[in-house]
């Protein structure tokens, strides 16, 4: 699933890319708990961004996770729940045909002041939430 936003994931972990590419995870505590359980320290350091977490895990850690039965069971449950959610909605904002990219960079021109760079990352949560 190498698309410039996600690293190449081992086949058993492909669902992590699906979860990371949809805001659905942000309002499901079980999904947030999965991201945190993958690597609590890295989860904090990535500012609670699944994309940043996945990019920073490394192939060795991904290989270990791909064999972790508990992680795979949780991942299967979450991706099944996400699939049901996506199947139940008619809204194009939830369509698989329009995949969400969690990191969007937009440049705005300024008058005499240069450009302002605004990076939107909807996966970043306030540190006070502990997630």
Radius of gyration: 16 Å
Oligomer: single chain
Number of strands: 2
Class from helix and strand fractions: mainly alpha
Strand order of the largest sheet: 1-2
Mean pLDDT: 75
Shape: globular
Are there runs of 5+ residues with pLDDT below 50, and where? 93-131
Beta-strand fraction estimate: 5-15%
Give the count of helical stretches.
6
**Biggest sheet descriptor:** 2 strands, antiparallel
In whole angstroms, how far apart are the ends? 26 Å
Name the helicity range.
Answer: 40-55%
Instruction: Give the topology string: H per helix, E per strand.
Output: HHHHHHEE
Concise synopsis of the structure shown:
The chain is mainly alpha-helical. The protein is built from 6 helices and 2 strands, in the order ααααααββ.
Defining traits:
131 residues, mainly alpha, two-stranded antiparallel sheet, 6 helices, 2 strands, disordered C terminus
SSE diagram, text form:
Layout (H helix, E strand, L loop, with lengths): L13 H7 L8 H10 L1 H6 L4 H8 L1 H7 L3 H20 L14 E7 L5 E7 L10
Antiparallel strand pairs: 1-2
Architecture overview:
Helix 1 (14-20) crosses helix 6 (69-88) and helix 2 (29-38) packs antiparallel against helix 6 (69-88). With 131 residues, the protein is mostly helical. The longest helix is centred in the middle third of the chain and has 20 residues, at 69-88. It has 6 helices and 2 strands. 44% of the residues lie in helices and 11% in strands. It is globular. The protein has a domain at 11-100. It has a two-stranded antiparallel ribbon with strand order 1-2. Residues 93-131 have low confidence and may be disordered. The protein has helices at 14-20, 29-38, 40-45, 50-57, 59-65, 69-88; strands spanning 103-109, 115-121.
